[in-house]
Fold these 4 entries.
Entry 1:
Amino acid sequence: MCIRDSIRPILLQRVAQEQSMNPHHLGTIADTDAFRIRQRQCLFLGLSDGARIDSFRRANRELDHEQIWQTHDLSAPRVKELVEKLTIQVRKLRNDSEETTIYPFRTIVLLDDFSGSGSSYYMAKADGTVGGKIAKFFNALMDDREALAALVSQGDFDIFILLYVATEQAITHLAEYSHRLWGARNVQCKVQAIQHLPPTIKVARAGDEKFRVLIEKYYDHSIFDPHIEKGGAADAKYGYADCGLPVVLHHNTPNNALALLWSYDDRAVRGLFPRVQRHKEIT
């Protein structure tokens, strides 16, 4: 669903423009080798195991197995293999097995399940640089000395950050930093969420007094670790960065949620849906 509604329409429009076709004739565009090639030149990478790449792959059978990978942290041999298999398939679609051209990816889609603040992807550092998993990916992709740079041809690719669920705060944060990093290198970067969580969902510290008493009563400060501290709040009562989300995901509870929900099951106060610390990371 996320590919059909979010990525495919954009690819159709880009092929229409490149091939000088009527952009409203979507069926005709989709039936061209130009579109099949453009779609094959998309690489889908998971930003965490929450991206559920196994389910994503099964739900998008029109995509090739070799254009979907569970992690964005790719080794040099993996990069080489992905580009080689892409090149073979593009040559077949072009019906020219004698070609010597190497075909890189033209679109990279970074997938994840949830973001409450966006700071695990981009985070301002004390020295003025930007850290975070997408910032690290950016640095490697844009550096010709890094193996990851071989995935794309500089000046001829774009980036999509596609989240299944995200707050408006996270989307704004991602859009701002994406423009700062990718935009500075003339790389188009689009941020999109399938399901948006509005600001009104947040439980604030100045909220209902009876609920504040409950939050205070059932709080164990031992969950306030260095990762939570990076969010800037004095405690973890309202989650990382005081996001105050009343959110529970089916596979885990984000630490942006109220501590009442996610407090670990090995603490004095056990949350209603204890969080599993997968990589000691923040969201």
Entry 2:
Amino acid sequence: MKLWILKPVPGLSDDVNPWNPWYYKVFGFVVRAATEEDARGIAQLESGDESKDKPTPWLNPKLSTCSEIMVEGTSGVILKDLASA
């Protein structure tokens, strides 16, 4: 199995941005799955209100990114789960 990181595409205009407004929405996932398609499907099943009015943003590569997390690479945070208002 592989690890995948999914995030919204940055800079989406408000008319297509399912993460606007920001509350009750998921802004990222780290998913274990065999394929990108499987990872996107799992994220979609676990989504918040970002899937309420504009369905399936985690399945749509125009709205979300899905990249395999490789062992190689620079140092950095993979997941930060911060709840702030």
Entry 3:
Amino acid sequence: MRADLLVANAAFYAAFNAKDFGAMDALWARTAAVACVHPGWNALEGREQVMESWRGILGNAEQPRVFVGAESAHELGDVGYVLCREIVDGSALATTNLFTLEDGEWRMVHHHTSPVAL
């Protein structure tokens, strides 16, 4: 199942880099509570707020590509998380992506990214 978590995580970044809102929307949980913390933003709670943030980010033609690496997946029953490193426009970010099993598939419930102090 850890491999499935890494597949779900990769799908998140594929949607992000393709600026594909439909794919991003499909990755997020529909029945579980969701939240998101983008770098420098206040915490967003609720699917409507979170998806509206993604609509704005993905609709921004200037949004740089996100490179991801150093992924490690961890499963805790019906919950799993992936720790990874993002590189955005030359800046390193530490990231946690939290997933839950929903209808037999890993769906994102929380994305938290913050800058790494050098």
Entry 4:
Amino acid sequence: IIKNGKIDAIGKVGELKIPYGTEVVEARGLTVLPGLIDAHYHNEESLELPELYLKNGVTSVRDPGEWMESYDSVRLQGRPMPRLFLTGPHINTYPPAYPNDAMIVQDNEECRLAVEKLAAQGATAIKVYFGMPVGMIREVCSAAHERGLPVTAHLEITNAMDAINAGIDGIEHITTFGNILIPPMEAELYKQKVMADYNARRRGRYEMWNRISLNKNEKVDSLIRFLQSNKTFISPTLAAFEKRFDKGDSIEVNGFTQMLRFTGMLKKAGVPVVVGSHSYVAYANLGEAYFREMELLQEAGLSPMEIIVAATMENARFFRIEEKLGSIEEGKLADLLLIRGDPLQDIRQMRNIEKVMLNGKWVDR
């Protein structure tokens, strides 16, 4: 029973008293789920994408790296859109890979000031970008945690274990871990290449993962144990790196296959894996990247139930909103989906969205 935008009561048919005049929705043959949460959404000032995502059941999104004011034009449209959790621009050092999405800091004091400014604007998390020295990452984390804000990071050339020890709560992109799993000299050469030319990582990340051995590798086992003990949230964004032979060569395809395998190994070991779509990916139509990410997680070895939990409750924990969203429980906000079929049998059934509810109201689909 939904009342005032929240789940007021849950019970079995015939046992739960339904108030007179209640709108009753017949859901026979459908599956009821909490609204989906996207940990890694990029809008790129699109006026149509937020509404597309909402119609596809994604009721909450986190944009990790876009100025908050870039959403002004979207809001002014007055069209339905998911609940927004914004970080503002990612914090980075000079020169930035993406100048339009970066806030440049040059010392520890500027790190603290950047966090202070973003928090004052309403940031719900902070994101640091690769190129940031570990000492400055520590300062960002300290300032963010003082304000109750989690910190997530796209690293790739910074050692993720060092960054997590400095306070990072979440990691964006499975590619971030590649430089830990190769010999130190190779990792340093890769770092220097990327620092000299950011585009070197586009091919370089696949070459790196192509060389990594995941079998009986103490570096792999040690990293997984570390992530599990730290309960670090991982948003793999596999769809952003997907390579098949129609769009890539054997090195790229094998490198991507290794990323898939490693993601499955993380989940099997109990590392918190969440769903982040990246929005714009090679093997999904506009607005459907989230479904593709779920399907790739199944290919990585996650069960449909594990994927659904990653998309809902695990992401709610990552966002620190688990008391309000992420599951169907009394007192939580009424973000709900009705899906034709049973996604526990096949995660592709998630595409069969029948109805979407946001804040207790049905979305016009």
